[in-house]
Amino acid sequence: MTTTVAVLAPPATRADFVAVYRTVFAGPLFTATAVLEEADIVAVAPAGCCAPGLAARLRAAAGRGCRVLAAGPAVASLAATGLLDGRRVAVHEGQAAAFTRRFPRVRVAAGVRFVDDDPVLTAPDQRAAVDLCLHLVRKDLGAEAAADLSAGLHPYVVQRTCTGSR
Question: How far is Cα 61 from Cα 102, in angstroms, rounded to an integer?
Fold first, then answer.
């Protein structure tokens, strides 16, 4: 059985903001879809959830148990939809106060690697997004699947993915 993944990213999204998702969720364990309603996992890029009507569709997806992932600037994009209200989310320590002022209904967890507030999972940056995605694989498909997937992620590829290096 494969898990269906949708990556929400507007056309102008920087490649490094979706590279983690595309790197981890490639291969035989996952199937890509462009249809949000068919997805088991929705990975959000910055501004990837701001199109009219998309916020309601994301809330509906989370309501049916679809996992929604956001890392780095995408956490703020997701917070703008209201989906994170009342939820604990991961942000950088230096951004915690500004994030709290902007989104007072969101419970900020600064300085953590990621937060799993199932079905919404967040990471403060792209580097931590790798750990977040592998955590989700471990949780849903088991430790062996996560270890196999992790072993297949070449450190150079992960470094380039996380830093945006070319």
Answer: 24
Please give the backbone phi and psi of residue 147, each rounded to the nearest 5 degrees, phi first.
-65, -45
Task: Tell me the backbone φ, ψ of residue 49, rounded to 5 degrees.
Answer: -125, 20
Cα–Cα dist 41/107, whole Å: 22
pLDDT 10s digits, 79-128: 998 999 999 999 999 999 999 999 999 999 999 999 999 999 999 998 89
What is the CATH architecture of 3-156? 3-Layer(aba) Sandwich (3.40)
Phi–psi pair at 138, nearest 5 degrees: -60, -45
Q: For tokens 């072993």, what's the residue? A: 151
- Collapsed DSSP state (helix, strand, coil) of residue 137: helix
Q: What is the DSSP-derived secondary structure letter of residue 124?
A: S
Tell which residue, 127, 19, 28, 148, has the closest CA to residue 72: 127
